[in-house]
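Troubleshooting log. The previous structure file for this entry was overwritten by mistake, so regenerating from the original sequence record. Sequence copied from the archived sheet and checked twice against the printout by T.R.
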Amino acid sequence: MDRVRKALAAALAPALARLRAAGKAGGRRQTAAAAAAMLLIVISVGSLLPKTQVARTARKTPARSGATANSWIPSAAWATPYSFTVAQSDADVALLPPATNRCPMYTFYDTEALAAGGANLTTEARMLEIWREAWWAAGFEPTVLGTADARAHKLYSKLDAAALRPAHREDLVRLMALATQATGVYTETRLVPMSTLPTNTAISWLRKCKGSSGHLIALYKELDAGMIYGSQDDIQAYVHEVVHVLHKVDYTDKRFFRNPPPNPAYAYYSPAVMRATFPQIPPDEVPDLANAHLHQTFMERYKDVAVVNPFPEVTTPIVLSALATAREIASCPRYAPSHGTCPPNIPACRPCVPEKRDLDKLVVSAPAIPASTRTLALVTVPHPLVLQALRHRHPDLSADYVRRHTTRNDWVRAVTAELFAETPGVGLSARLVALKELVGLNQRILRSAYFATWEAQSQASDCLVHDDVRWFFGFDVPAPRLAGAGTDPVLPAAESALALLEAQSHLKPLSHATVAQLVAACQAAPVFDSPAAQDEAVATLLVARNTLLSADADDVRKRKLVEGWNLADAEIWKFVRTLNDISVQELKIWE
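Regenerated output below.
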């Protein structure tokens, strides 16, 4: 390395002198020539440097065919413009951000105790599902503990001898279950994250999973022990003290507990809160109220929802699911009793009133990804083969036709126009890196943009951008209310990727009738001038999608030709597709 550094310094010295002299003289040509000379020297000497190595073992997603047979490599260099320049392997490989562990979010759920207390088990199960969705979308790993976990504690056998009161015994059983787990956070099932900021500092700090400070267990006084967190050792020590010395659970004991400053980031729908704040809501409808408030608070983060549609004259057929999903998200929650109410932790919210929601203003079609984080962007990423087929309505994308009649990488240029509005001359590489960073930023926690490939959206049911969209948004998103949609799912069960990893990992050709039904049913309003125009779009989409998924040699040749001609468009498609696949795998494995 010393030899290379000395060679580089010696070679650059004259060029640096020329560059300084040209700068003083003010000549643009001389300055440019000197800079070019420096660049050539750096490139030449750079060839002597040792090459940066990355892991060469590409991980595979479940077996697929055609363009969906992807592999990926976790790498710190994931934000490089083109994966193949770093991976030095198959062009289909995708570099992804290295995976990080989610902080566990624990709760305790005992159906026998709930039933004995007269609880409605259906309501409790529904509330548990709302709790899981909300905390998963907040970046945690929801983990449900039970009596079996408490029994695994070494002091459980001494529980009876401790002679605790029933309420204290219940609290101790929970703490014993928690003490058997890795450090994390504990909340009751009726406590959910509720913040108008996706990057709320309190929630962000909890995600670091560092426990509490000063060897004390943190407990929010205003949440009435609905949330506690501390290290496994600290909780273990308190359990030992209760069993052997205290014989009671006292959350006010300052030797073991501390009260953090109040933080309005969590909503607790405890029986006491419901009686005091929402007396009009029946106990069996608490999950519906919590879900509605999660939906309402989510939309308070944004002024509108933008469906990115860079070429509306041709790409509208592939953003229909995004348009339908956007209208459902921007609408008031369907649980009518929630209208006009606020979450218990945000009493000064902006209540959702259906009569005042103008969806035509709240849902907009945008030619590019908005630069403002106050707009939620739904971005449908098409494979370049699909985009070119829609733009040119040409069934045979031969090499001659592609090179003579199509422009290159139009999608990346178009959707990044607003991101680079002040520097429109920025090249494709910088635009591609910015897109990847935006996708990566929104992968685990939805901040301002949701990305999905059209090919995956066309597998979803009920016109949503994804069958598992509730896990990404943090609340239940019902099937869109569309004029063309009936009561049955848009796709037959055999062609739907509904909630199953295996189905989600095996995209396959669809029939003409299915694609026609998908396009017809998912329109919130007519988007085609005539039935003939709609039929033409359906036929084009069908051919392009099935060609994309085909393993036939001729189809593979066409796909690789279009990808080679549109490297940037193909790269972002592969990146989004693979990252979404990994997110779904993570979700399914956890479930």
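The chain has three domains: 2-46, 103-268, 285-590. Archived copy saved in two places this time.
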